Amino acid sequence: MWRFMSIQNRNELLCTVNRISCVINRKGCYRHLSRTSVLSVTDNTSIIQQLQKVEGGKIKLEKFDDSKIAVLTIDNERIRNALSGSMMVQLRDAINQLEEWKEGKGVILIGASSTFCSGADLNLAKQFNSPEHGEAMCELMQTTLTRLKRLPMISLAVIEGKALGGGAELTTACDFRLISKNAEIRFVHVKRGVTPGWGGGSRLVNIVGRRMALRLLAGSIKITAKDALQYGLADDIISSDQVTLHAGMNWLKKIIDGPVNSIRGIKQIVTYADDLGTDQALQFERSVFTTVWGAPALMESLETKKKY
Ligand SMILES: CC[C@@H](C(=O)O)C(=O)SCCNC(=O)CCNC(=O)[C@H](O)C(C)(C)COP(=O)(O)OP(=O)(O)OC[C@H]1O[C@@H](n2cnc3c(N)ncnc32)[C@H](O)[C@@H]1OP(=O)(O)O
């Protein structure tokens, strides 16, 4: 449960989200005071260490200081960018780094080698098939993806090729989705006799609504680019003559053109509104506003008549 706590002083706002306490400062940056699990207190450390031993592939994080956009690449070409155990842990570590990147305004999630992600590595599912392993993997992935969704920068999934099972779930952890003309998203979980477990089921309801989510999940319906746009799952289609990463960068740059404090503040306001009741969200919005009102970006724009 989210709990607004107090304005520390004019410069800092202290709040807690479940067991995570964070402080938001005048620059719109936040830092965690503690990083315990968002969703569970179960100590799954040893199981996560076992999962981590299922190696293969990598998660690459690049931060571009000029555009203030980071690119997270899912790279496990041999098995169509399926996530090995070590990649799940690397994804968590990359989110740690992004939380510390105070200048960042945007983040792109993309797959290497012209495809997005074919879900969890099925070899991992074969080796670690107990409910305890399922619980530990879900906790790791849900916590990581919840933190991705709540980053104070705007996130975009750029989908080329296939996003299947857990791969489809990953796309739902981003604020926006761009999909290339021939790409496909499919929640294939029922075909494997399972359900979503990385938080994608719950997030899908928020994105497309309850009835459409039921259809897409239970029916394991193949979602083309055109369908995704029509269902509100994608925000735009990338035409075949465009390089997908460039198209994603250009699309995102238009949204994050404003000053860093405003962009990060807005993302946090929207995140809180999404997770809190209206009263708390309004209170939080007011509190973030006090960190930008009278701050250098506004004063400079008043002084020089500059518009961002
Ligand atoms: C919580 C998430 C979790 C869940 O609970 O649901 C999951 O995500 S489970 C995984 C769900 N995903 C799938 O079921 C996708 C399975 N893969 C495919 O359907 C196809 O491979 C593909 C992704 C459509 C690509 O087809 P194609 O281009 O024809 O290539 P191949 O089929 O020949 O695949 C090449 C190579 O990759 C291996 N592969 C693909 N996906 C996975 C995966 N998820 N885990 C492990 N390995 C995967 C595939 O077996 C081939 O290997 P080789 O036979 O050794 O060449």
Automatic annotation (TrEMBL):
It is an enzyme of class 4 (lyase). The keyword Magnesium does not apply. CDD domains: crotonase-like. Keywords: Cytoplasm, Lyase. The keyword Lyase applies. It is found in: Cytoplasm, Cytosol. GO terms for cellular component: cytosol. It comes from the Eukaryota. Its EC number is 4.1.1.94. Its main location: cytoplasm. Gene3D superfamilies: 2-enoyl-CoA Hydratase, Chain A, domain 1. GO terms for molecular function: methyl/ethyl malonyl-CoA decarboxylase activity. It catalyses: (2R)-ethylmalonyl-CoA + H(+) = butanoyl-CoA + CO2; (2S)-ethylmalonyl-CoA + H(+) = butanoyl-CoA + CO2; (S)-methylmalonyl-CoA + H(+) = propanoyl-CoA + CO2. GO terms for biological process: fatty acid beta-oxidation. Belongs to the enoyl-CoA hydratase/isomerase family. PANTHER family: ENOYL-COA HYDRATASE-RELATED, ETHYLMALONYL-COA DECARBOXYLASE. Decarboxylates ethylmalonyl-CoA, a potentially toxic metabolite, to form butyryl-CoA, suggesting it might be involved in metabolite proofreading. Acts preferentially on (S)-ethylmalonyl-CoA but also has some activity on the (R)-isomer. Also has methylmalonyl-CoA decarboxylase activity at lower level. This is Ethylmalonyl-CoA decarboxylase.
